[in-house]
Design goal:
Number of strands: 15
Oligomer: single chain
Bound molecules: zinc ion
Strand order of the largest sheet: 6-7-8-10-9
Distance between the termini: 32 Å
Length: 557
Amino acid sequence: MGVWTKSLRTGFLVMSLIASAYPAPDTADLKRMSARFAPTELRVDLSHLSAGDRAALAELVRAARILDDVFIDQLWSGGHAELAKLKQDHSDLGQARLRYFWLNKGPWSDLDGHVAFLPGVPERKPAGANFYPEDMSKEEFEAWVKTLSSDQLKSAEGFFSVIRRQGGKLTAVRYSEAYKARLDECAALLRKAAEHTTNASLKRFLTARADAFHSNDYYASDVAWMDLDSPVDVTIGPYETYNDELFGYKAAFEAYINLRDEAESAKVKFFADHLQDVENNLPMDPKFRNPKIGALAPIAVVNEVYCSGDAAHGVQTAAYNLPNDERVVQEKGAKRVMLRNVQEAKFRTNLMPIAGHVLAASSTSLLDFDAFFTHILAHELSHGIGPQQITVGGRQTTARKELKELYSSIEEAKADATGLFMLQFLSDRKAVKIDDRRLYTTYLASSFRTLRFGLKEAHGKGMAMQFNYLIDKGAFVRRNGRYEIDFTKMKDAVRDLVHDLLTLEATGDYTGAKRMMDKLVMIHPEEQKIIEGLKDVPVDIAPNFVTATSLAGDVRP
Ligand code: ZN
């Protein structure tokens, strides 16, 4: 997984500005809390779109907007009443509350462990959100499902139903019933968009998804989504289950309305076509190299016009993997969608100021978005090469199984380092034009963006490992509280790092992985000082959807 994906949403407690809900934050507090999201305009160039696709896009933004309403209801039963109340309150405090409510799509602060920032609401987000009755315990649900037939059980534990109480007894209500009015409206707009577009695969997906909103059966439309091959790239429906912290069963509605980035998609295809060549040259014992690497999940690079619902609260998604339905994944695989303009917005509002605190003056001109994004692509592709199926003492196993809880940190570090290696390799072969000074310097600045969030999860641990390894090798140079690359050492140091990580995976060496992590997963006082200096740098963006607004009118509450 890349950086800034949804998995990072829960990792932000370190940035917390409120310790408890009471007393509720005042206007100044709320302004500070909102300021962690830098207002950023999101624009997309529509000039290459056909008239039909342009008309379709406007309908799709309107359809997506409805899913904000559905999501607000999914998150909390009182969400719409609270939002209506805040809209009536024109005081400074009321406006600050409304703004922060909209950033979270509810009364709990995503960046602060879902603690309430409004008075008179539940102090924390209920674990089951509004997917279950607020007074239902886990035990009650578990006892209830034991009484159900296998069909009823499927619905009760399925993605696409909410659990309600009727006459005191629990019952599963299908999304197509629970959200009928809004889903009907949304489906009608999807059908309108389907009429406008000239792209057959988009027409198929939109029609199938509109049907699914009525039938509650999402299978055929998930399959159609995998076959989508269209300049207008749409993801719309109930998908992720993170908001259901009780069981992780229930999918939240969201939408991403995107345009495909043709140039970057071609770049991904070029890299993917060269992956076997990179594998054949990986810096590890040749016996560990895979003569035939597996098929790669497709990667779509897009620019986001609009997002809504579950996609539009807290930290903005910069990449996602879907679908989640195992049957579709078995049959068609999954797709990774990368939102380039969202990454660029984060780069501008977040990485550029960080670089200002971190890089030596002579290095700042080397910070480069293109290098940043190309490395993210290389990171994703690198997950597809290197040792996965391995043999340990004659036993067939996997690197994941052998390295256990250390695997994801090692694998994230490997993907970063191997991504650098891949780009350097292709650049040395003149297959791509990459300015390695920009690549390495941007990567150095970017490491602080990850370290800033601490060492709790795999990306942070993996980054600390790389950072300290490269410091020890003299490739990252720390001087007077600023950092730069020693370009005479960097290439070899990266090669050594890739060698060490790949060899741990190839041999399933748990003890070796533990030793390396014990030595390197730490933040030294020098870096800690820099990180403390970053506390006023925004954590993320608050997108202003300029292009969406120009197409479909105001998209705010
Ligand atoms: Zn990754």
